[in-house]
Specification:
By secondary structure, this protein is an alpha/beta fold. It folds into two domains: about 160 residues, Rossmann fold (3-Layer(aba) Sandwich), CATH 3.40.50.720; about 120 residues, Orthogonal Bundle (N-(1-d-carboxylethyl)-l-norvaline Dehydrogenase, domain 2), CATH 1.10.1040. Helix content is about 55%, strand content about 15%. The chain contains 14 helices and nine strands. Strands 3-2-1-4-5-6 form a six-stranded parallel sheet, with helices on both faces. Helix 12 packs antiparallel against helix 13. The termini are far apart. Bound molecules: nicotinamide-adenine-dinucleotide (NAD). Nicotinamide-adenine-dinucleotide (NAD) binds next to helix 4, strand 7 and helix 7. Nicotinamide-adenine-dinucleotide binds next to helix 4, strand 7 and helix 7.
Length: about 300
């Protein structure tokens, strides 16, 4: 079985790498933060010295990094993938980054005959652990076909959306829908609570109807507990929304609701909540209405 290189072993990368090892793939791993690789090395992965070293040892490389500059640095920068990779190597970038940057990196890699697909994910840490992420892919059909068995180890659904960058365009659309959905849930539940109605009962009453959603079922139980530990950090969602606004503005698409939600998230960041889960958007509404949406005792 081919060796796979895995760069970026954070909240998402670590469980994804562990699932690949569980499926008998041999892994060579690297993270800028040395301690991030401990758990996967303890499970049997080889520790690479740099992204370049990982690329020199593997024909397939996965990156799971925060944002566009990190992927650019790990792939095209000093001691990066490009310096170590042989012609024919495939890069699967699973980070959520700007679609434009995916296209730029792919074009640089193509000069050295290195192929690339962008394959960002949705589902968060729980689905990363279960190997049931939704994976949205952009890139050449034959590279998609060849790498699909690897993606299926990490994903419950793996969909080719279009050319390089399309995976990240789909992910931006996903992030807009999630952010606006959480804000809608928050606005509604703060209203119900301040009106004196038990928010848990409102949740139970609406979840089977048209307002029911995966977002509601994932975030409302946590809000009722006041549990905003990440999960998906507000600062990462700000990053995705800024990428969405940039991409939209360059295409001539105004994003009315997204721009409001991103300012709500900015306010939470100023309030010291950047590392909270994005379900913590509800705290902004709670503060402005002076009411807390929590499970009632007894
Ligand atoms: P994270 O911050 O927990 O992990 C990122 C890791 O990358 C860190 O360990 C960091 O040290 C490492 N890193 C940064 N720059 C590096 C470099 N140049 N070389 C090597 N390593 C480097 O982030 P995460 O939550 O795992 O998210 C990763 C990506 O997945 C992001 O793009 C995020 O938007 C996306 N995502 C996250 C979630 C979620 O719920 N956390 C869900 C879907 C998608």
């Amino acid at each position: 079985m081919k060796k796979i290189g895995f760069i970026g072993l954070g909240i998402m990368g670590k469980p994804m790498a562990l699932n690949l090892m569980e499926a008998d793939y041999q892994l060579v791993v690297f993270d800028k933060l040395g301690s991030a690789v401990d758990a996967v090395v303890a499970a049997g992965a080889e520790s690479g010295l740099s992204s370049r070293d990982v690329a020199a040892k593997c024909e397939i490389i996965i990156t799971m990094l925060p944002n566009s500059p990190h992927v650019r640095e790990a792939v095209l920068g000093k001691d990066g993938v490009l310096e170590g990779a042989a012609p024919g190597t495939v890069l699967i970038d699973m980070s959520s980054i700007s679609p434009i940057v995916s296209q730029e990196i792919s074009a640089e890699l193509a000069k050295a005959d290195i192929k690339m697909i962008d394959a960002p994910v949705s589902g968060g840490e729980p689905k990363a652990k279960d190997g049931t992420l939704a994976i949205m892919v952009g890139g050449p059909e034959e590279v998609f076909r060849d790498t699909k068995p690897i993606l299926e180890v990490m994903g419950g659904s793996v969909t080719l959306v279009g050319d390089i960058g399309s995976g990240n365009t789909a992910k931006l659309a996903n992030q807009i829908m999630v952010a606006v959905n959480i804000a809608g849930m928050s606005e509604a539940m703060v209203l119900a609570t301040k009106a004196g109605v038990d928010p848990e009962k409102v949740y139970r009453a609406v979840r089977g109807g048209l307002a029911g959603s995966t977002v509601l079922d994932a975030k409302m139980p946590l809000a009722l507990e006041g549990d905003f530990s990440p999960g998906f950090r507000i600062e990462l969602h700000i990053k995705d929304m800024m990428n969405a606004l940039d991409a939209a503005h360059s295409l001539g698409v105004p994003l009315f609701l997204s721009s409001q939600v991103v300012e709500i998230m900015q306010a939470l960041k100023v309030d010291g909540k950047a590392a909270d889960d994005h379900g913590g958007i509800i705290q902004f509404y709670e503060k402005s209405a002076q009411v807390e949406v929590r499970r009632r005792k007894g």
